[in-house]
Amino acid sequence: MIQGANVQRSSPHPAPLVAEVREGLQGSPKKLPPKLFYDAEGARLFERICELPEYYLTRAETEILRERGAQMATLAGPGCTLIEYGSGSGVKSRLLLDRLQRPSGYVPIDVSREQLVRVAAETAANHPGLSVHPVWADYTRPFSLPTLPPEIPRVAAFLGSTIGNFTPLEAADFLRRVARGLGKGGVLLLGVDRRKDPAVLNAAYNDSQGLTAAFNLNLLTRLNREFDADFIESRFRHRAFFDAEASRIEMHLESLVDQRVRVADVRISFEAGETIWTESSYKYDRVRLDQLAAASGFTRSTLWADARDRFWIAGLTVA
Predict the structure, then answer these.
(1) pTM for the complete prediction?
(2) Cα angle value 99/312/208 (rounded, 5°)
(3) To the nearest whole number, what is the mean pLDDT of the chain?
(4) What is the pLDDT of residue 52?
(5) DSSP characters for 245-276?
(6) Which run of H or E residues covers position 105?
(7) Backbone phi, then psi, for 55, in 5-degree steps?
């Protein structure tokens, strides 16, 4: 059952996001936050990307959830409430909820309202008696969780390697907020993409069907629609590459010509070859992962990998 008649909104007022867009595009280098990817069309494109042969991340993580879900349920404990940061299409939450021992509640949190409403309704219909508390929120910023019984154990899930979109300092700050929401002894299931052959990484973000390029360029369409911008998509192209020193994939939109674009009542100048940095995806090894956990107030309880060792789900416990 869904608690309350409406989706709880914890998203900030649009004004801060407008300011973030202006500041990012007036900076050097120009940047935009990856949360802008996920309008309805962006969410649809990402679901298609997850099915691509080059994009191994979702398949590898789903394999782990299917093969190791019972172990995750043991770590979480019976009767827990599942709090999912970035619930997306709800596929992974279904795998988790089916394996958790008598879960008492589910809190999906997502920035895409349309998808969140659908996932919450489907979950409530498929799990009679489960309390579903959907929260429409930008989880990269502080927000309030629904009031939950303090005696109920909490397990958070942050899957899909989305932690890689944060810089190491941002990731530690975000995970500290997660730890405070869980409380001492709370469990976090964290999806982490492993550092690997750059050719594999580059292929995953430069797919042969051009879906990742369309996903990246759709961000400009959204700015035109919602931020009074006048980008011409054909004047930009998708670029993605692995930076070995920083251990991250970078996604950019490169201007093909000298141009000026209006965005949210300001004019932004581009030189040919200049880019907008739209996403980073940091790749972790064990040392980096353990450093992140320690800096965030967690200890690593266990680490699950897919059969080809491409991806991890880390079981972390609030120290």
Answers:
(1) 0.87
(2) 105
(3) 92
(4) 95
(5) TTTEEEEEEEESS-EEEEETTEEEEE-TT-EE
(6) strand 105-110
(7) -90, 85
